[in-house]
Amino acid sequence: MAKWTAADLPDLSGRTVVVTGASGGIGLITARELARAGARVVLAVRDVAKAEAALAGIAGHAEVRRLDVSSLDSVRSFADGWTGELDVLVNNAGVMDIPLTRTPDGLDLQTATNYFGPYTLTRLLLPHITDRIVHIASQLHRMGHARPDDLNWEQRPYRQLDAYSDSKLDLMLFSLELQRRLTTAGSAVRSMVAHPGIATTTLASHSGSNRINRMRFLLNDPEHGALPTLFAATQNLPGNSYVGPDGPGGVKGHPKLGRPSRAARDSGTAAELWRATAALTGLPD
User: Is 278 helix (H, G, I), strand (E, B) or coil?
Assistant: First the structure.
C-alpha cells in the first residue's frame, strides 16, 4: 500500500485554517502545504516579521496575524478579532526543555505555550470552528504525569523536560475531554492529536535533549515530520484520533493512526484537568 504524502492532500479550496507557530519548522511546512492545496491559511505567530518573510515561499492564499500563545492577553485579542468561520485550528506552537520562566500572567512559560495557550485559544475560537482542532503533541507524553493540583509548577521542583512531557500529556487529555463534550453537545466538530515523531527541527536545539538530532538517519526530516499534522487536518478521521509516524516507536515514517498512553486515555483525569485549567485561565467550566 502506498505511503501517504503531502501530494495526497485533497483540494482545500474554500477552507480556512489557522496554524499557530507557523513562522518556521513543521508549522511553516504545514501552512505551506495547506495553502498549496487551496486553503486560506492564517499563520498565527509571535514573530510577525519572520513569518512575513516566510510568505515568499508559500504559493496560495496565506496571511500573518500576531499571536503569542504563551500570553493569555494575546490569545484573547486574537480570538476577539476573529470573524467568520474557521474550518481547522492547528495548535502547533510549542517550546521544549526550557528553564522555569514566568509569564506576565504568572504562568510557567513552557506549560503556557504548550498547553494553557492552546486550551484557551481553542475554547475561545470554538464557536467559529466548523470541522476540527488538531493539537500537536509528542510521544514524550508517555513520560508525563497529569497534575491538576499543580498545573503551574508551584508546589513541585521544576524539571525542564518533565514540564515538557507533562504539558504534552495535558494537551492529550484536553483533546479527550473536549471531544467528549463536543459529542455530548451533538457537535460535528472533532478534536484530534498528531505528533511528528522525532523530527530534525530547532525545537530542542538549545538543550541537552537535542543530542538525538545528531543521529539524523534515525529521524524524520521536517517535511516528513509535518505529515501527521497534514493527515490529521485533512483526512476523514474520528474524533480524538492520534496520528503519528508508522516506523518503530513512532519515531519516523509516514502517517498512521496510533494509540496514546493509558494515562492519556483517562477520562476522569481529563475532566479534572479541564476544570483546573478553566479556573487557572479564567474560563467557565
Answer: helix
